[in-house]
Amino acid sequence: MSMNEIDILLVDDSQEDVDLTLHALRGERLANRVFVARDGEEALEFVFCTGQHAGRSFEHPLKLVLLDLKLPKVDGLQVLKRMKSDERTKTVPVVLMTSSKEERDRMKGYELGVNSYLQKPVDFDEFRRMVKLAGLYWLVVNQPPVASRAPALAEAAK
Amino acid sequence: MSVTEIKSAGTTAAAAPAKMKLRALLIEDNQLDAELVLRWLRKDGYDVTSLVVQDEAAFIKALHSLSPDIVLADYNLPSWKGMEAVGVLVREGLDIPLILVSGALGDVTAVECIKRGATDYVLKDGLARLPEAIHRALEERQERQRRRQAEQDLARQAAELARSNADLEQFAYVASHDLQEPLRMVTAYTQLLAERYRGVLDADADKFIGYASEGAQRMQVLIQDLLAFSRVGRKNSDRAETDCNALLQDVLHTLTPAIQESGAHVDAEGLPTIWADRTLLAQVLQNLIGNAIKFRGKDAPLIHVKAEKNDQEWRFTVSDNGIGIPAEHAENIFVVFQRLHARSEYPGNGIGLAICKKVIERYGGKIWVESQPGSGSTFIFTLPLSSCQKPGNLNS
Amino acid sequence: MTSCMMLLIVDDNPADVGLAREALANSSIVSEITTCKDGEEALAFLHKDGGYANTARPDLMILDLSLPGRDGLSVLTEVKADPELKRIPVVIFSTSRLAKDIARSYQLGANCYISKPGNLKDFFSAIRSIQQFWFAVVSLPAQGE
């Protein structure tokens, strides 16, 4: 699987949460196109095709970014802000997925243009269900800004 | 009149095209030489109108006032070279034959003059050749004019055809697009009616609502198909390097439900990477493989996709073990909305193959089927190498 | 803050509005639905102008693109440029599948884009998914009184 076929960028430094998220996405057969970044810096390099991800291209834009708030090196709000203020990346749907209950964080997120804000449930099953619903919503119900090949064929098949 | 006189009168009249009008412009400073030339022309049967000039200014003026059919120029004038007249004609964009009529003119110079644009040359002591040279020059000019006219007509027809095609496609697109809105209303609400009132009104009502609902849904599919059909011509090709193996995988992914339901097995051989519009090519493969699955017999579909290259084209085949097609229908299955079976037997609108044909023909290729009822079908389409190679790249 | 979520639907087609209401009629998620049939009315509602002075701000806005007068994209632009309104999630719900409409919507700040499906089942499913995701999964920003 090449770096250019990634649909979902998952940015989270908690191994447990990453495992749960991938497990939930796997159930919906969405997991094979996920890239995991462990900190904000790598997330930015991935999104902007720089640094260790300089080989990636902008031609296959991400369909979804699942972003935690508390990240090492560069925090989630910073990543969000950078993405939403750059023409090349502002149209990528970004979903903040965080354990923070702070209303301040939520407001700031929406202020910066986050597409939606999900609060990680404490319960494992609830967490899985949330990821599954979010994955389905953003990858199946939603139309991302640039359609990939498969939906175009599905359209043609109708 | 004596018999001899009548005979000679008859002979003279038959010598040349009877009294054809000829406007001749002579570039000549010797009065006698000019007279001689004109006398030959009249003897040949032309009704001659003429002007004689000696310099460029007079020449240009005469071109406009006389509109000559032919220019007869002396090669050597004291003040102006006859050949310069050729330059003037070219500059003015006039297609008028110029024949050099000259005294001494070596062979080398004669050839040079013709290379530089003179139509012919005739020596002053060989004026007997003049009429023939003029006939030939005028005939060639007429031929050129006919050809130019034909090219213009063709270009105009092509432009009109292109415009009319564009209009038609635009119409199909707009019509399909705008038709979908009200149709969506009808479909959704007949379905809602069906859900809410099934069994509540009488049996007839159920039936009526059922027919309306079905009709609306069929129309939706029809319009979407029409849209797809019109889109084939509309898009300006987004061509790119296309790996047909990867393309096939995508197509099979889209057909997953049908493949699973039928237990179909598809294999491929020799699929190349070519320069093509990915979406269009995918549509062709999807329609052909989809059909192979749909029109299956009792056995699970076995579908084989193959590609071969010869020095003119790529030849793709999609063969199956399905119900086959009778020879007499082999051609009209490619016609829009043509179906061979009742809707209740096999679903579909009959537009898939029409789309394939349109796409393939856009590439300059051909598509046809070889089939026997009961022993499966092989659909074959060709793509000329010239249309599926990256521009500027001679190696495929 | 009310426990009942408020949904604003901006759509000039009463048939589609009817379908949306029908889809949500028996939902376990209780929501209050307000509809506006054009951009002007929607913005007046959001700004609490005139007769709308005592209304609450919606928690979610479902916005069609083709509206009479001011079109959907211009309403979207105004909403996302207004500091008091920009936090309201906007779901574009439109028949258009054109790439340029989708791209433009995201560029102007739409939270997501959903194409109106052609058949009843899928239409209902889309509306219900929207309600479920935004009212039961997402944490919404608090809207001022």
Q: If helices are DSSP runs of H or I spanning 4 or more residues, what is the number of helices of chain A?
A: 6
Main β-sheet description of chain A: 5 strands, parallel
Report the strand count of chain C: 5
Count of separate structural domains of chain C:
1
**Main sheet: strands, sense, barrel of chain C:** 5 strands, parallel
Enter the CATH topology name of chain A.
Rossmann fold
- Please tally the β strands of chain A and state the result: 5
**Pairing-aware structural class of the strands and helices of chain C?**
alpha/beta
Q: What is the helical fraction of chain C, as a range of percent?
A: 40-55%
Topology record:
The complex is a heterotrimer of chains A (158), B (396) and C (145).
Chain A: E1 8-11, H1 15-27, E2 34-37, H2 40-48, E3 64-67, H3 76-84, E4 94-98, H4 103-111, E5 116-119, H5 124-141, H6 149-157
Parallel strand pairs in A: 1-2, 1-3, 3-4, 4-5
Helix pairs in contact in A: 1-5, 2-3
Chain B: H1 3-14, E1 20-27, H2 31-43, E2 46-53, H3 56-66, E3 70-73, H4 84-92, E4 98-102, H5 107-115, E5 120-123, H6 130-197, H7 203-234, E6 239-243, H8 244-254, H9 256-262, E7 265-269, E8 273-277, H10 278-294, E9 302-309, E10 313-319, H11 352-362, E11 367-371, E12 377-384
Parallel strand pairs in B: 1-2, 1-3, 3-4, 4-5, 7-9
Antiparallel strand pairs in B: 6-8, 9-10, 10-12, 11-12
Helix pairs in contact in B: 6-7, 7-11, 8-10, 10-11
Chain C: E1 5-10, H1 14-25, E2 31-36, H2 39-47, E3 60-63, H3 72-81, E4 90-94, H4 99-107, E5 112-115, H5 120-137
Parallel strand pairs in C: 1-2, 1-3, 3-4, 4-5
